[in-house]
Amino acid sequence: MSSENLTAILLMLCPDRKGLVSRISNFLFERGGNIIDLDEHVDRHEQMFFLRVAWDMKDFSISPDDLDGAFFPLAKEFGAQWSIRLNREQRRMAIFVSKLDHCLQEILWRHELGEFDAAIPLIISNHAELRYLADRYRIPFHVYEIDRQNLEEQEKREMDLLAKERIDTVALARYMQILSPKFVADYANKIVNIHHSFLPAFAGANPYKQAFERGVKIIGATSHYVTGVLDDGPIISQDIIRVSHKDSLEDFVRKGRDLERLVLARGLRLHLEDRILVHGRKTVVFE
Amino acid sequence: MSSENLTAILLMLCPDRKGLVSRISNFLFERGGNIIDLDEHVDRHEQMFFLRVAWDMKDFSISPDDLDGAFFPLAKEFGAQWSIRLNREQRRMAIFVSKLDHCLQEILWRHELGEFDAAIPLIISNHAELRYLADRYRIPFHVYEIDRQNLEEQEKREMDLLAKERIDTVALARYMQILSPKFVADYANKIVNIHHSFLPAFAGANPYKQAFERGVKIIGATSHYVTGVLDDGPIISQDIIRVSHKDSLEDFVRKGRDLERLVLARGLRLHLEDRILVHGRKTVVFE
Amino acid sequence: MSSENLTAILLMLCPDRKGLVSRISNFLFERGGNIIDLDEHVDRHEQMFFLRVAWDMKDFSISPDDLDGAFFPLAKEFGAQWSIRLNREQRRMAIFVSKLDHCLQEILWRHELGEFDAAIPLIISNHAELRYLADRYRIPFHVYEIDRQNLEEQEKREMDLLAKERIDTVALARYMQILSPKFVADYANKIVNIHHSFLPAFAGANPYKQAFERGVKIIGATSHYVTGVLDDGPIISQDIIRVSHKDSLEDFVRKGRDLERLVLARGLRLHLEDRILVHGRKTVVFE
Amino acid sequence: MSSENLTAILLMLCPDRKGLVSRISNFLFERGGNIIDLDEHVDRHEQMFFLRVAWDMKDFSISPDDLDGAFFPLAKEFGAQWSIRLNREQRRMAIFVSKLDHCLQEILWRHELGEFDAAIPLIISNHAELRYLADRYRIPFHVYEIDRQNLEEQEKREMDLLAKERIDTVALARYMQILSPKFVADYANKIVNIHHSFLPAFAGANPYKQAFERGVKIIGATSHYVTGVLDDGPIISQDIIRVSHKDSLEDFVRKGRDLERLVLARGLRLHLEDRILVHGRKTVVFE
Lengths: 287, 287, 287, 287
Description:
4-stranded antiparallel sheet, homotetramer, Rossmann fold, Alpha-Beta Plaits
């Protein structure tokens, strides 16, 4: 990638105060940066400021390596949580999957098509069934079978592998195994899960069965960041589809598959493009 | 209404068995009835049969008054729950409302337009605020203020009024008062409520606040029959609208209003056209 | 309204160039303005910059009356089309309607509820039928019957009335009369129409009939600014609803009514809140 | 497949008359058939009757081979167009594709998952690019390159192949080549196409570009049967997705891909399950 196409994205949140947009846009303008896209949001109630700004590095007077250092004083003054990422630093995503193929298939197909700006160096599964699919797309497939005894050591191996491969994003593509608090903490706001219900309705196991038995007329799917509490993390994206009395539980599952893969793909895309800020239990999503 | 336009609607459910459609369509054909619309559903899992059939009474050899008696033997043989209603027997709907006007406004407007095939002989409220709206549409408005002490006696008065006016359908148009078990039992499958959430998510009080705090990306509304358990009755219709971090709690409420009135109106329309069969916690809705 | 709550909204578009956000946010910051909301969009292909920024006038060093003059040099430098509106300058909207009540009813109800930040000084119709509805909401109702002979002079009277009442927004709430080129030109980007189809499908007369005969499975509605070409103006908002073979032409019309009033109300709300910029045949809508 | 699971589906349409449901359900009941599913529709305006009925062949007194003959007299009396298909007679579907992979990928994946009750004996393309995808799913891939000179002879070869493989359904999965009138006539109501717009808006070439330039706020996709008039055949299914000024033409294409593959898959599923009756320019779809 030549510097011609080099862009940077700043994501930040801080307590609201006067002049934030002015100060930051000046910071960029004075150094020769051309703003490509700027989105801001102020939560009046929480008195919080949220910002995503992308700019062209072509004529920028600060070198990519010095960016963080140059922005640090401003961020410190604002009391901000922030990150700057250059588009040349491609994200590295691991996919965790169990036996159901549809979400994995969807991610791999979209990746092949170039929809995700990320490398996928590896797939991890607790079962061997979907190796053929990883093979089709020539992505290394690692099986870590998990039982009550070996959970801790297997997860240790997984985390070593993630570290070695410098993974910064984990996609849970219908991975039927709960991650340990340590894993979740180490990858806070970096693990995107798909839950096959319209959360918070039908959290936990068998959401389609729960929905079927309740007699709902609409089913949903939810992509969210994983936290220590099951199916409770900040929601990124949701979508729904209509069902009726004609639909059996199998129809719920079939229709739900189409939702799950689209909603997970959408959540991943938003994450990979640095469009999400997490504040408490909520997300600000700059689309 | 002349007999030219007289139609009858049979709604029934019974254990499934061979020949049900044949036996019932023969019953109608042999007596000169022309089927206008027939919808059936078989729940394979529950082994239950659900039917709605509407027919023209023009050349029917049985008089309207003898219809129930004529169908009784067949229904008994099938072990069916059933009802037959003639379109000349217009339903009589009471609306219960508190202080929020949007659902009441919607029902009255649609009624004026002829969308509901029902008379609305009265509106009941626990507050006086919306009398002006009832006056606009010239519908009697009865206020029964309710406090901890007088609930039982006030509800008794309401039920006497409903009985006197031969009410067969009750619309709870954001009525902020819980009905007694006796009321609910007397009007089983006849009270349609609107709940301002995508049930079963956010049952109970302040669903928009709950949804706002959870950070959902979609909000919903649900029309359902009222049962003894709060917000737990069989669901008739649901719909949703998208929200984002830009939406304040007030925006949730505003957007939700549009959902509530459409979903309640839809639920009422389906009920008033005899399109709903209740089985356990679920509905079969013939649209 | 005290200066405590005084806010200003700048809407502008100009050729894109470096530093636009910085220059404008500085302009506000240096004068003590606190940005409440800022939305920008760059059309890379057209090389155009679009901006909506709202700020608090409380500590602003420029008086409301001098605002335009103060911003003028900047706007001139940028070659911008722009407007600044203070929230104390309430918009004044006229509604044009014919015989169908649903869109008028919707606007009046929402207005009563406070959803539109605008005065509605008058309603104009080419028929007398809906006077009762204007009366309900105590809004002056003017009938200008139009035939082939009197179109020009009647429209002249309407425009005089609009001028006298300082109308800045015209809502065509299913107004079945084509406005003259002069009228449209005088109120360019100020007339919001609802067309009862998913434009550009089924432009012109009888869109539901066209849709019914084509056998579509979805119908739509479109709110748009009116231009000299029928049903061709910049689209503001669209929505859809599903139909099936079970729906008669009357069902299309009934279902469509719900779409029309929501989509028109949404279009008006966006317009009244200065959220729309028109560029060529398209709109940029800051939601 | 044992006779235990043998079911038959009758699809028919005829002029409406009294007793049709009764006569047909009797025909089945008297011969020991148990109705699994019955859907009927009467078009009052056109005076037409549409029926889909599925029944269990387990205790049916007529052998599968004699079914057509047994029903013939009834059908003749009614003046019906009709077909009976046994579930043991699996449909045979050919896929036509050009260079875009997403619709082909979707069909092959769903087929592998068992969502389509059909064999896919072959894929035909006018380009070689997607052979790798056919290979992944081990389906024969035939390339017939087409230019102005060889259209007729190449299509002749294709039709010979279809005949030889007893193909009864053709899926056009973004096949960028117009079929000849003869081909279309030979496979009337058997060719399902996906058009990447909300028909009838944006028929013809480059619908996303047309939509982008018109500034629509919603884009759509349409699956339909192919007739002699381009993009004019009876519509089976449609769906939409929202777009905004933020979406480039490339975003329209990307978002549209998700619509296209779902809407085509849905259209194919409905066709393969004998749920569609065509009457004039419209479909009756029994879902």
